[in-house]
Amino acid sequence: MSDSSMSDWKSIEVFGLAKAEKQAWLLGQLNRLTRHHQAHCQPYANLLAGQGQQEGAAESLNAVPYVAARLFKMLRLSSTLPDNVFKTLTSSGTTSQVKSQIFLDRDTAALQSKVLVSLLSSFTGKARRPMLIVDHDGLTGDKAGFSARGAGVQGLSFLGRDHTYALNSDMTPNWPVIDDFMAKYANEPVLIFGFTFMVWQHFIQPLIASGRSNQLPQALLFHSGGWKKLQDQAVSNDTFKTTVRQALGEQVAIHNFYGMVEQIGSVFVECEQGHLHAPTYADVLIRDQETLAEQCEGEIGLIQVLSFIPTSYPGHSILTEDLGRLLGEDNCLCGRKGRYFEVLGRLPKTEVRGCSDVF
Ligand SMILES: [Zn+2]
């Protein structure tokens, strides 16, 4: 497949390609990106040389070279000129940790937004819904140190209208605003977005405690972010869903999604069967955490994520520090094509190892 296919992504159904077709398309995109980043990012070229990889001509998805996620914390990995950097994203985390830095130029940022909207609107429909954001206003202002949270909110805001922030800056519910939104849109499809723990802790729990229930029965909730804090409270995905439906309405659609600041735009959305799905534009592989060999379906290992989007930084193939398991491909009962998987948590810090050690 030729390099000109980059503009073709819009003509491909988000979850419509079966294995052979998808791999042919995605592999062409990933090889193009490998060559591009080798030519434009010296540390990346060094990394590939260290692995004995020169060509950018992988013959299968599992042969596409990958960068360990933590390298984005250690190196300035940029394939664009400093003057072209339009926004720098930083990973969330405590201030004592070194954060990932992701350099976006206008083209990559624009493609991220377009792909994200195309992907998520396959769940919400084309019409922009009134949108309740479970966060406080003031996350998206600072261009220099744009946080993952701010980027997530801004990325999803394109799906909605009448954007309403549900929280005060101290994370307490802004009840007058919430009550207005609920009164205004009680009989309409609305969109709710927030980070998983914040939705649970700062929205759903206060709603239940205050006696409000069943006030947004046509809502669709997208939520993302780690499960660790909820696991600490012994809240499973099933408990989360059941409780959200008790609070908002029995028919509320709830979709978790998995994604990372290193690959904004490529997210893996949970379907009605509770499976995270790779869209046509992205994929996942599972690798053994010791040998880094590709794992079979059902085996636990590190999640590698592939995306056709990033041109301004070498993030098209990343080995994450998250553990997961491939559940199947092209045969989920929801009808979507592609691989589906589950995320099982994060590798403890001390166990992180892998290809970056060639540095
Ligand atoms: Zn499914």
TrEMBL record:
<protein>
    <recommendedName>
        <fullName>Acyl-protein synthetase LuxE domain-containing protein</fullName>
    </recommendedName>
</protein>
<dbReference type="InterPro" id="IPR042099">
    <property type="entry name" value="ANL_N_sf"/>
</dbReference>
<feature type="domain" description="Acyl-protein synthetase LuxE">
    <location>
        <begin position="33"/>
        <end position="358"/>
    </location>
</feature>
<dbReference type="InterPro" id="IPR007534">
    <property type="entry name" value="LuxE"/>
</dbReference>
<dbReference type="Pfam" id="PF04443">
    <property type="entry name" value="LuxE"/>
</dbReference>
